[in-house]
Structures are given as structure tokens and as C-alpha cells.
Amino acid sequence: MPGLGTSFGRGGATTAQQDLANADCILIEGSSMAEAHPVGFRWVMKAKERGATIIHVDPRFSRTSALANIWVPIRAGSDITFLGGIIHHIIENELFFRDYVVHYTNASCILRDEYGDPEDNAGGYFSGWNENRRTYEMESWKYKGEGLSYPERDLTLQNPQCVFQKLKRHFARYTPEMVEKVCGIPPALFHKVADALVRASGPDKTAAICYAVGWTQHSKGVQIIRTASILQLLLGNIGRPGGGILALRGHASIQGSTDIPTLYDILPGYLAMPRAGDEETLQKYLAGHTPKTGLWSNTPAYFISLLKAYYGKHATAENDFGYNWLPKLTADHSFFEYLYEMADGKMEGMFLIGQNSAVGAPNTRMQRRSLAKLKWFVIRDMVETEPARFWRDSAEIERGELKTDEIETEIFFFPAAGHAEKEGAFTNTQRLLQWREKAVEPPGDSRSDAWFIHQLALRLIAKARTSDDPIDEPLRALNWWYPEDELGEPKMEAVLAEINGWKTEPQSNIEGVLFGRDREGQPHHGPQVADYNELKADGSTASGAWIYSGVFNRDGVNKANARQPKDYLGHGWGFSWPSDRRIIYNRASAKPNGEPWSERKKLVWWESEKWTGIDVPDFKTSKPPDYRPRGDENGLDGQRGDAPFILHEDGLGWMYVPKGLQDGPFPTHYEPLESPVRNSLYSRDTNPAVNWFTRNENRFAPPGDPRFPYVLTTYRLTEHHTGGGMSRFLSHLSELQPEMFVEMSPELAAKLKIDNSDYVCIVSFRGAIEARALVSRRIRPMNLNGKTVHQVAVPFHFGAAGPLRGNAANNLVAISGEPNVTIMESKALVCNIIPGRLPHGPAFLDWLERNAPQAGQPPNLHPEQPPVGAPSGGKFSRSHGKEAKTG
Amino acid sequence: MEIMFGLLSKWPLVRQIRERKDGTGLESMSDKTRAMHARIDDAKVARSICPYCGVGCGQLVYHKDGKLISIEGDPESPISQGNLCPKGAASYQLLTHSQRETKIKYRAPRAKQWTEISMDRAMDMVADRLWESRKRTFVRQENGATINHTTAICHLGGATLDNEENYLIKKLFTAGLGMVCVSNQARI
Fold it and tell me: Which of A535, A483, A488, A547 shows the shortest CA–CA distance to A514?
């Protein structure tokens, strides 16, 4: 999310799947799109039919590679070097789209003299590294001068302090030879890819990049996406048809789950959750989050409208709109942090809703054992998944590590309604809200998650009303007005209406008011707002998610349920945020003077005193291309008529990120936390700001550890889905992929003396599993700087529950935290492979200790891993694992 | 005699000879076959979206008298144009397979088995647990700063929940109860 967000302004795909058909070249990396997004991949095939070059970069030759023109086998974890190599090649040979780079990106912006690049030191650090706190102090990263709104620029790109020159220097050693050394990719193949991308660049060609968790689930995941973003800005592909970056999200509404987040550090619409201390009051919070120029300059309107949605009439100017009631953050409260609290017995209760952490989350041994420490546990799902059974049927029960009659956890299992049994919207991978109509009632006691939360809220609010404890004030103030149906389900369109936003002054029986009466029949609010421009900071508007505003406005039409597409971009089908713009940053599809770059690649353009075209302009429609601010204006008025990236204060695409990232303004190659080789570029192997979550149950192997010689990566099968709850219980899907396996090369199989379909054990410091060997040419040994490195790949869907069982790959994966989003590194780790079957029961524990010896060892075995008690790094750096227990 | 003649004339072979057809068409069908029609012919249809990956293929959910009949791709979706991958195509089974849980289950501390409990009782108990844990662990101030939160109750999940559901969850849990340990796999 922050990869795209910091580069361009919004944390989401920049284009639509259908638009891939317009690309002249498509690079798919960190994804096997044909397997994980099969129906979306049809658009890649349409592009290929029209003559586009399709490139697939992946450790294994998958079904995507079979349909591509070029397959590039890559060593898992080396993507920044590969993409950085292409950047180097483009800059060295002046193959970038100059007009786009000069006018639409911050390549020309001048940096401070104090800025220090990893090229300035052997370790590979940026300026400002604080070893004691394990974070960067980022003053030296800012633009020269004050603020980010009006940077000093050199449009010739020659000034040695300009971003472009710093970029050139930063990637100077990412040569084709370095790419071969680090990634295992021969120069001829590297040049084939670089040439294809360069050929598809310029005024009348565009190229698109598609990626998925093969890029995000790394200790430098955000920076991998940043490298692709820089590449797309250099080639001039963002905001143009057939261009852009399509983040391929893996679940039906994972985009929705970040837009309207059940995440600890953000609020709907990517507003920041307030922090304790510096953001004690509403004024302090707004002062720190309201830039002078760009779309975020209206943060007060978005934030106060959200508070009005949360607390209704109880939020007033006198009480700072209820700001005090919002909880404040004191640390990183994300999943892995609170998992450790759970493991230490400090978490009383958990709600696990539509999620299988005992298969789908890393270090599943720790996950299952931590559940046993909860006082109470509420789980909602359609089937009895692994977390629902940890107490009576799991590997830990079998081994005697957990005993059922000693587990105190009180557990409630609620059967959940399926997708056709409830109405509501999903937001898909291209920011498109699509509504689902309800077909039938859920069976038996199954209910939707909305029903559950609504019924829970009613009970808690009733308790709060009879309490006089001040801690219950937020509950008494909570605006829980939702009318419901006969089953007790809240009306979902009423919730959507709140998300869109309305004027808060209650008015009924006038046009534009939707669901105007509350549960008691009282007038509740006024007419819907048309879009986020109508939101105000004075309490006169409310909106649950400003970025979705417009989806259900005064015309009373639920646009998420619109089903009449008018054009290839799909206008008339669903609602794409923001404001139904399908390809965002599309001002960049026209020249600085407002004409399209070419007839072939026209999308929006300036005509008859306004912006118009094939898509809704992602720009103020009345702002002329030659508009120049005086230099003191606020908001969008402070941005030039040729600055397409309106979320950024300077209106430019950020090749260099002056603020917003924990681990550097430019992407830098570091090795994965577990790697068979040392870093060829710097003396530091790993990302300095990573959170290692040091703990005895979560050890990491040192670089080149001979006990774990093979690189392991994980992937998806088309026929299964995530933790298996939606696929391993279905015979139609199970019969297509019936067993857990590990893909390996014939060379590795020969070395291990195993045949195809033999059982093997795979072991890491976190655990061990067994799988059948799938010996295949689809995986190759790699030559890294003279060393032969074998890679193996496993699907991650199998688990111990359901009719179709297998060992869970996540038993092998460690918990670790990329510095910006605390995501784990499941795509590159090391393992050993031992032919034969895995012992069951207590014998397993002896076997594990023999093959991954760690008893009596300190928790940190990797030389760069900080010890227990050291700061965790990142934006909420705090001491970690002080109470780590053995075991 | 007439009855015999009537029966004979229905015999597909006779029809085939009379109509001089090749035996592969309607003339060879029995009445039963001729009367067959698609399951979805007289069904209602709800327009839905596949719950699996992020492509968001359109689905047509056919139902009749409160029962699901079939789930197919929606040809009018500009993204999927009627297609579904193996997972989407298995959506009917996802909703109707025999291992689906339909009862609320409760496991007491140290118990070896589930027991069944009623919906109201289950909701009351969960509300009580949440209320008590919150009372015990809510912190109003720390180091002089107002924090109004609890870190002893957590939530995990959300990527296949509706936007509206996630909105309500965050509203109740965070804005209402002060829970800050809220996460889903979007960052996993």
C-alpha cells in the first residue's frame, strides 16, 4: 500500500484490469497472474493477441510463464536488483520519456545538502540512521527549503543535488553484471526485458506492470513496489491507457479492507489513527496532518466528517467532535505485536472473523499455541477451520505440547453467512465497488458479520446506558442508528449511505435524503453529499469514508449496484473510487499543454475550457493546463495545471519519497532475512529498519547457514484459496489439487536421491512439514556469483482441518515485520530437505531438535538480528520480547 | 385398435421414418425428454460478485422458493464477461456443501467437546466477556497522555468481509470500545 501511496498519492492499483488489453508490453512479477487471477489474466491475453510482449519474472515456470513471450527465472528476494538494473540501463542510455519525467515527476526537485545516499557508505545506510533507536531521523531527506509544496526545481535535470542525479548515482552499481550475480539472470535475458520495456515507452506506446504478494511479502516489500513505481515514472506510463501499475490483490475485498480498514494505524479513507502524546487534541492532530497544498489539505473536512459519522449529534464543536473518545495509539498494535502479547498471556479475548491464522499466517506453531493463552475466543466462519479446532485436534495436541483438558480458553463458534446470503459491497483489485444482492437466507443459525456486530453493539450500548463509568462515554455517544430487517440485520444500504456521507442537519421528506429516519423513527440526517468536495470541517457533514463519497449520493442510486457498462473502462458498472475515475492520475495522459500525447494513447484532454475525455478526469475539471499558482494558495489552487499527482503537495510523481517511508527515500537492495548468500552491493545484509520479532520460537538462520542450504518460496494454486476454508471443504476443488507437494528441480532431486512423488520433510528453524516431491524442470538451480543455489516452492493452502488435509507451509515461515506495514517475509526463506516421512507425536520434537538445533541457544542467531529487549525499529519503535519465554 | 395406433405413432422410430429425419433430432425424443427445461428457467436471479480473489467476477445467483439453484458467471460484467475460474465456478458448492456449520457452538474452559447454545445466549455471553475484559483492562491515561484504549482485546480478519461490515466493525471496536489491536491480512 505505501509503495504506491508514497509514489503516486493513493494506495491502490492505478488502472483497471480491462485496460491491460491496451498495453504494448506487460511485465508480471511477484505474481503468477494466470493462476491466481485467471479471469483477469484474459486481458493480458487480449493484449498479447494485439501484439504486446508479455514478460513473466518468477522463480518457477508457471502457467503464466507458459503463456508469456519471455520467462525470466529469478532468485526469490532479488527483485530490487533486477528492477534497479533496468532503471540504471534506462538512465545510462537516456532511454527515459524525458518530457514526462521533467514535468510530471519530482526528478527535477532539489534536495538538501545533508542528504546522504547508501552509495556514500559501505553499509548501505541513508543519512540519519539512529542505531540506538533503530530508526531513521528523516530531516535530511526533505527537499531543500521549506515544505513540500513549492520545491526548487532544475528542469534540465543537471543539478548534482536534484533527484534525477541522485537516482542515477543511487543505482550506478546495478549493472547487468550485478543483476547476474545477485539474481541469477544472464545479461542477454536482462537486456531482452529492458529492450521490450523501453520499446513500449513514449508518446504512443505504454507498458503496464502487474504484481501481487510475491513483491509485498518481503522484509523490503514496500521498496520493491517503489522500484517498479520509479521505473514506470521514468518510462512515462502512469495515468495512461495500457500503462500503470496493477496491484493484484488476493481477496474479494482486501482493497475494501484497507480503504475502510480493520487495520490499527489508519481510519477510513487513509486518515491516520491519532497517537498518544503529540496528538493529544484535535488541533494538534490536524496541524500535523494537514498539508498546505494538494487534496489532503482538506483533511479537517474528511476527519471531522468521519467523527460526525461515528458519534452523530454527540460530536460537537464544543467537545472537538468527540476526538477524545477515539483511542490513541501508543505502539505498533498490529497482528504480530499483539500475537506476542497473546503468547505471553496478556491478551484476554480475540475475535477471528473470516480469517484462518492457523494456516494463513506465519509461524503457525506459534499461532496455534498462542490461542491456548486466551481467556475467550470468538471465531466466525462457514466451516470449522484449524483455529476453531486447535484445542482438540492439531499437531500440538498430537505431540502433547498442548493438552485439551488444560486449555482454559472459552470458545464461541458462530456459523457465518455466505456471499449470496447477505447484501453488501466488495471493493476489488482495481478500486471498484461492486454490490452483491441477497439471494437466499443463511441456513440455520448462520448470520452475516454485520448482524453479529450490530447485535453485539446493541447489547453493549444498552449496558453503557445503565453505567455511569466515564470509560463508557464513547459507547453512549456512538451513533448506532441503523434500521434493521426481520432477521435483525442492519440495512446495508443505510450503512452505505453513511459511508457516502450526508448533511448532518436532520431533514426528512426532502429530495436527496436516504434512510432519513433512525431506529426509533426520528429524523436523523439531511440530504446525501454529492462527493468529497462537499465535505466540511464545521460538523455540518458526516461521511464514513471520504474516498467513497459519490457512490450513493442525492440521486438515490446505489452506484455500486449499477450494472450497465457503457464503455471498456466500465463506466455504468459499479463505482470506482475516487469519483468513478477508472484510471487515476490520468492528467498525465495529456501533454503539459493539455493535448493528448498521441491519438493512439488519448484518455483525457483539455478542450472547450475543461478537461474531458474517455475517463472521468482525475483533476480539477476547470483548471487550465497553463495555470500557475502565485505560491501562497491552499489546496488544489496551490498546484500547477501540469501537476497530475494531486494527492502530493507538489503535485508530482515521487521518484524520491521525501516523507512517508521508514526505510529510505529510494529502494535499496538488501538480502532477505534468511539468505544463502551475502549482499553483493553493501556490507549490510538486511534492511536496517526491519522488526525481527526476536523470540525463542521465531529464530532466523544466519546467512549461508549450511544446515539450511535451499531457498524456499510459497505460492498459490488456482484451485485452492488462502487457508483452505473455502476450497479444501469442496470436493469439486479438492479433486483438482488433492495433495500438498514441494516443487524442486531434477538436479536437486538427484542430489537428494529422491524420485517424483516421494515423501520428503522440509525443515526450518520455525518448524517442519512433510510433502510429496514434485520434480520438475519448472524450477531451475541458480548460479549466484559462482555458487549454485537451489530453490524450492510450496503451495500454502493445506492444513489439518477439513476433508482434504496436508501440512501447512506457514509452519516454516518466520514472523517478521517490514518497517512500514509490518508484513512478514514469506516469499524468501531458507530450508533443508530430508527424504522420508515426518515423525508424529512426541518423536517429532526430537527430530526437529536434531535437524534444526536450537535448544539452549539465544533467540537471535543471525548476526544482524538485534537481541531481545532492543528497539523493534520502525515508526513505533519499542522494546521487544523482554519477557520472551523459552519454549 | 386406436390406442395401439396412437402408441405406435409416438414411437420414435415411426416418427423418424414418417418425417424422414436422421434420428438425431426432436423426433427421436421421448415426451419426458421433450418436456425437460433448464433448472434456471423459472428461477429468480440475484446479481452478485465472486467471493474468492480480487478480480471481482460478476456472478448470477439463481434461486427459487428460498433455495439456491445455480451460480454462473455474469456475461454483462465488463471485467469477467461471464467467465469464472474453478473457484468461482464452485461457488454453489461453497454455499451448499455438507460440512458447512449451521449451529452456534460453545466450548467451556477445559472441555473436550463442543456444546450447542442458542443465539441469544451466545450473544449475551460474548457481550459479557467483552464488557468485563474491557472494564479490567481499559486505560484512560498513560504518562500524562490521554489514551482511552484497551490492548487486551483484539480482532483479526476482514478481507472477504463487505465494506459495510468492516465499517461497522471498526466503528464499534475502535470508536466505541477503544480497541486498538485491530488487524487483517491486508498487511499480512
Answer: A483
| Residue among A40, A257, A731 whose CB faces B55 most closely | A40
Place of cell 498521441: A598
A460–B101 CB contact, under 8 Å: no
Which residues fall within 8 angstroms of residue A20, CB to CB, at 6 or more apart? A26, A43, A44, A46, A47, A208, A210, A242, A246
- Across the interface, whether the CB atoms of B154 and A444 are under 8 A apart is answered no
Residue of A nearest to B75 (CA): A563
| Residue B4, pLDDT score | 83
Considering only CB atoms, A729 lies closest to which of B91, B97, B158, namely B97
Q: Helix A79-92 crosses helix A163-170 at what angle (to 10 degrees)? A: 120
Quote the DSSP letter at residue A312.
G
Say how many CA atoms lie within 13 Å of A31 toward its Cβ: 25
CB-based contacts of A266, cutoff 8 Å, min separation 6 = A258, A272, A273
B170 contacts A334? CB cut-off 8 A: no
CB atoms B186 and A263 under 8 Å:
yes
Cβ-defined contact of A349 to B153 (cutoff 8 Å): yes
At A28, phi and psi to the nearest 5? Answer: -110, 120
Dihedrals phi, psi of A273, to nearest 5 degrees: -70, 140
Distance CA B172, CA B57 (A): 31
- A428-453 tens-digit pLDDT: 999 999 999 999 999 999 999 999 99
A460/B131 touch (CB, cutoff 8 Å), yes or no: yes
Q: Taking CB atoms and an 8 Å cutoff, what residues of chain B touch A326?
A: 148, 174-175
B172, A457 Cβ separation under 8 angstroms: yes
Dist CA A713 CA A184 (whole Å): 16
Secondary structure (DSSP) of A586-642: GGGGB-TTSSBS-STT--EEEETTEEEESS--SS-TT--TT----S---BGGGS-TT
**Beta bridge pairs of residue B155:** A351, B182
Query: Measured between CA atoms, how close is B122 to chain A, in angstroms?
Result: 7
Burial of residue A461 (number of CB atoms within 10 Å: 0-12, 13-18, 19+):
middle
Q: Which among B62, B175, B181 has the least Cβ separation from residue A333?
A: B181
Q: Write out residues in chain B with pLDDT < 70, as ranges.
A: 188
The candidate with the shortest Cα–Cα distance to A272, out of A11, A454, A502, is A11
Single out the residue of A832, A823, A599, A594 nearest to residue A701, CA to CA: A832
DSSP codes joined into one string, A220-259: THHHHHHHHHHHHHHTT-TTSTT-SEEE--SSTTTTHHHH
Complex-level ipTM: 0.96
Cβ <8 Å between B171 and A355: no
Nearest of A702, A724, A723 to residue A829 by alpha carbon:
A702
- Least CB-CB distance to B79: which of A17, A38, A405? A17
In this complex, the residue of B46, B104, B170 whose CB is nearest that of residue A415 is B104
**Residue A7 phi/psi, 5° resolution?**
-70, -45
**Ordered DSSP codes for A543-598:** -S-GGGTTTT-TT---GGG-B---STT-TTBSEETTTT-SSTTGGGGB-TTSSBS-
Residue A18 and residue A28: Cα distance in Å, rounded? 15
Query: Which residue matches cell numbers 515456470?
Result: A61
Residues 6+ apart with CB under 8 A from A105: A233, A652, A653, A654, A655
3-state helix, strand, coil in chain B (%, to 5): 40, 25, 40
For the segment A363-375, the average pLDDT, to the nearest whole number, is 95
d(CA A884, CA A867): 11
| pTM strictly above 0.80 | yes
The tens digit of pLDDT for each residue in A558-600 reads 999 999 999 999 999 999 999 999 999 999 999 999 999 999 9
The yes-or-no verdict on residue A884 having pLDDT over 70 is no
At which residue does the C-alpha cell 543471525 appear? A862
A contact test, residue of B71, B130, B154 with most A CBs within 10 A: B154
